[in-house]
Structure formats: structure tokens, C-alpha cells
Amino acid sequence: MPGNMSFKNFLARREIKERVKVIEKNLSNLIPVSLKNPTGVKAKQAKFEDINNNNNSETYCVFRTRQTRLLKWVIASYLFYNDFLSAEWSKKDENKKICIELQGEGEKSTDIKYKLTIFLTTGTIQVQGNNITSFNDDFDNLKMCTDTINPSTDEESDDDTRLIDLDDNTVIDIEVEVEGEKIVVEAIKQADINIREINGVETVDMKDITPTETMDKNATKLKEVFDNENTPTKLKEVTAIQPQNTSNEKQSQNKSTKMMKLQNESLEEDNQVTREDISKLNNKLNKLETTICDLMDKIKENNNINTSGNENNLCENEVRKLRAEKKERIAFVLEQGNKIKTLQCEIEHQRTLLSSKNREIEELNETMSTKSNSILESEREIKSMKNKVKDQEMIEKKLTCKNEEIEALTEKLSEKTMLLLKKEDEIFDLTVQCKKLSDSDTAPFTQVKGKKQNTDSGNGETKPNEISIESRSSDTKGDRPKVKILGSSILAHVDPSRMYGFNTTMEQAYTIQQAKGKLENMKDKPDVIIYQVLSNDVKSESDDNIMESMEELVQLTETLKEDSKIILSLPPPRKDDAKWNVRQRALNARLEARYHDKSNVVCSSNENLGYNGHPNAKFYRDDVHINMQGTKILCANILNTLRNMFGLPHPRRNSNDRPNNWPNRYDQPRFNGRPTNYEQTRSRNNSFRSRKY
């Protein structure tokens, strides 16, 4: 800083004009032809040559300028920081930005107050530092210097007009080509010298005075610039891309459009006021021109008639007043021109923001279109899935109908099979009886005739075909083996009369102790005694006590009924308690192992009433007791054990009668999940037989 000189007085020095030309020559090549849009959020929201922004803070501020004023800001920054304050000046990033660091004063001279960066590609000026409040005064000096600098790039093609300093004590001079106006110029100069000598003000060299035609021309140019350059009314032609779907985006867009309309209306009002002021100024300039012409005429008349000195003084005072008024009007015109330029820059900035918003809206529309396409694809997939579900329902209905038909056919087949089994049992009983009777005596046989329909070929009438079966007329029921069944409520559905081939009776014994009592009171001597107990004892007795009680029951039977054989019908699986079921299976295994080598004691397993040790629900009426279908399987197991014990043959089965849905040897369920009408029973030789009881 040269002494204590202010920056304003520094600019008033004569060598500054030459310095401006030198700086312009060296730095003009750094200014781009057009500016790019800034990328940062704060830079986008920066105001035009104004640091009063909401985004600015105590350590950061940013503002923007346009391309035509960027060189002025660079020159002003160079004059203020490099020449006036002797601060560091550097160009970085291949001349894309200019950085200036301002250091502190006194003891902390090494500390940096703030750092100013001019981005030449975007026209953004950024200030950062811990002492950024000191930049406020410096900003006013930079703005003042920028407004007064007129590089050669901004000069008009008309060389008749040149702007100099706008100090309070200076005037704008003009060149006058008209020979007759030189007298007025000399008179005005002389009057100005006299006035300044009287007031004690230093005189300023007056070179030229701009005529009124030139002022009208400048005002007309300013008006044309204001009307032809990008005015705010053109913003109405810029239509934002409307969003397609979401109401929130429409509301935000409507808000932004309303704000832009309000801004445009305010700018139009300001421009209208500016136009009115310019028109008033033109009228005043015309009046001033008329007044100057009248003064010239008066001066000529006064020169011709040799007016007195008092009139000359009045004329000089009048000229001084007119010159001061003209100076004020010219300053007002320049001020309005600067305002117009500022408004135009603000409009450009708002248009840039609007274009960025439009780009964001376009991106949102593209995103929405992709989302809508994905939604359409998902809807198509949902429709296809619904169609598949409908097809599946149709298939399930068809399968249900087929399953019902299969069930009906299966029921018919089961009825036929039951009838066949009964007939086979009858034949088997008759065969056994015939064999015994043929060995014992030679009693006469009776002939049993069965009717069979036969069609006579002659007359179409039917007559019976006699089938003879030789049988004894004597009663053979007393020759069947006698069987006594003692059991719990599991045998509730057992009909002893249907145990074909055996003379069977049954008594209820719910526990082992009750079975012992029934045995002690038994008067007849059966060939076989069957015990179906133990299932109720599991609830109250331990496993060892149960085994001991069963052994005592077997020993008591061997003592009281020496010639009777014993069958232990093991309890079937149960579902009421998992622990009881496990204990029951363990007891069954221990009993089978205990009496495996004993010929007069046989264990009859009922595991085929379940699957993998768990009860099959189709054979049970509750969690413990079996139903009619389960009773058939249990009786079939007992009959197989009896036939194996007495060496009797099992009923024959025709292989042609085997249905197609016969279960496999692993007792796996059918594909439709319904139970078969044929139950598997395991014989002593581990072969599987299908048996209907």
C-alpha cells in the first residue's frame, strides 16, 4: 500500500490508465469466449456480484459475474491486490483459475486472512478464510473499480465518446465539430474557471463536451440493448418439462413456475420504471439542448452589443447550473444503465437455474418412465401367474373328479373282494372238515346243489346248472380248535363268530391282574389262549414290573392250562402320549426276545397299524382305540398267527385279482394320499399278504 493513500485516490493517478492497458494486454487471453455452467451446488445458487447470500458463512462466500465483466474483475483484482496491497498472485490449473492470498498485518503477518479464487471458465469468484469479514470492505473497492474500468473490449465503435473518471469534481467533455459552437465551449470553460476560483476548487482540464445528439444516441442504444438482449419476457417461452405421474413433482414445479413468474413481473416493473426514467431524461436533455441554444444566441447578442459585466456573471451562473444539472442527468443515465446490465445478468443467472431445473425434471421423467416400464412388466408377470393358478385349479378339479371315480371303483372292488374272501373261507372250512370226516368214518354224503344260469340254445330259456359238492351232514363245529381271547377295550369291535375255522370266545380283561383273575376262574380248557393286555398297565406301572407281571401270567397259564398254547397280541402304536408309545414299543421288543425260543408262546405283532412306530390315523377312532378297519387288520394278524401255529394253509389269492394300486412292500402312501382298501400283514416267514377281514 503506497503510504496511507486510499484505493480511490490510487485509481485517480494518471499512470493508472496506462497500467490498465498493460494489464488488459497481458490477461485478455485468459478470458474465454463463453462461460460454462458451474457444477457445485453453492456456485449454482450464487448471486450476481452480490455476497449477501444464504449459502455464505463466516469462512466462505461466493458470487458470480458474466463474461463481458469477467476481464474487468480480473483487472480490478490485479490493481487492488497486486499493485495496491502487494499480495501474492498466481495462475493455476493451466490458466483456468487465478488464486490470490492476502496475509495479515503486524505480528501475524504470516497468517492468511483469506484466499480469493477467480474461476475463469465459469465466472465464479470464491473467497475462503478465517477472517472473511474483512472482505466486505474489499468487495466494495473491487466493485467500484470494476464499474469505473472500461477496457478496449467495451469501447463503442464511435470514437467521439470517451468515459473518464466519475469523481465528484469532474465533468464529461465532448468534441464539437461545428465551428460555431467553439464560442460556447470557450465561454463554458471560462465560466467554470471563474466559478472554481471563487469556490476555491481546483480546476479540471476540460477537453470535450458531449452534444445532446450523442446523449440521445447513447440513451437509444441503451434502450435497444434493454429491448433486444435476453429480456425477462422471453422467459415465458421456456416451458419446463411436465412430470408424468407424481403429484409432488407437479406441485414443486408449479411453485417454481409461480416464483419465476413473480420474479419476471417484478423485473418487468423495474424495467418499465427504468424506461419511463430514460424517456423523462431524454425530454430533459432536449430541454437542456434548447436552453444551450438560447444561451448561445444570447452570448452572440451580448458580444454584438457589448453587454455589461453583470449580465456576463448571470450568464456564467446560469451555465454553471445547467452544467451541474447535466452532470447529474448523465450520472443518472449511467446509473440506470448499470442497473439494466445488472438486471440482465440476474436474468441470465435465473435462466441458467431454470435450465438446470429442466434438466433435473428430464432426468426424473426418464427415471419415472423406467419405473413405469418395470411396473408394467411386473403386472404382466402377475397376470401370467393368475392364469397359471386358474389352470392349476382346473387340473385340481379334474383330478378330484377322477379321484372320486377311483374311490367309487375301489369301494366296488372291495365289496367284491370281501365276498370272494368269504367264499374262500367257506371252501377252506369245508375242505378241512371233509378231510377229517373222510379219515374217521364212512358216513353218507349229501349233495349240495348250487344254481348257475345257463342259456338254452334252443328256446332262449334259462335252466339251472347243478354243481355238486360232497360234504358230511354231521355237525363239524365241535372239531374246530377252541380259542379264548382275553383283552382290553382295543378289542371292542371284534366279532368272535367271524374267526373262520376256529371256535372263538372272548372276555374283557383291561389289565394284567384282571387277566390273571379271569384265568383262575376259567372252567373250560381252550386249545389257544390269546392275551391283548399291557396297554393300560403302561400308564401306571414301570417297565420292569410289567415284564415281571407278564412272565407271571404266562407261568400261571402254563400251570393251570397245561395243554393250551399262548398268543401274546402285542399292543398297537398309540398317539395319546409319545413317551408311553416309546415304552410300549420297547416292551413289545422285550417280550418278542423273551419268548422267541419258546414253542408254546408266540407273539403277534400289530406294527402294521402304524408307520415307523407311529399310529396311522385311518385305523384309529381316537388316539388309542382302533376303528373297524383297524380291527380287521388286528384280527387278520391273530388269524395268521393261529394258522401258523396249527400248520393250516392260508387262503389262496388269485394274482389276477390284485388291483393296480396295490401298495408296495414298504407301505408307502399312494400318490393321492387316500388309504388303500387292502392292508398289509406280515406273516411268520416275513412275507407280505393283503388281507380283508
UniProtKB/TrEMBL annotation:
**Any keyword Cell inner membrane?**
no
Q: Which SUPFAM superfamilies match?
A: SGNH hydrolase
Coiled-coil regions listed: 264-426
The protein's name is: Uncharacterized protein
Q: What is the lineage of its organism?
A: Eukaryota, Metazoa, Spiralia, Lophotrochozoa, Annelida
Q: Where is the composition biased (Polar residues)?
A: 241-257, 674-693
Q: Which domain of life is it from?
A: Eukaryota
| Record-linked Gene3D superfamilies | SGNH hydrolase
Question: Keywords on this record?
Answer: Coiled coil
Q: Region Disordered: which residues? A: 241-260, 443-480, 646-693
Q: Does the keyword Coiled coil apply?
A: yes
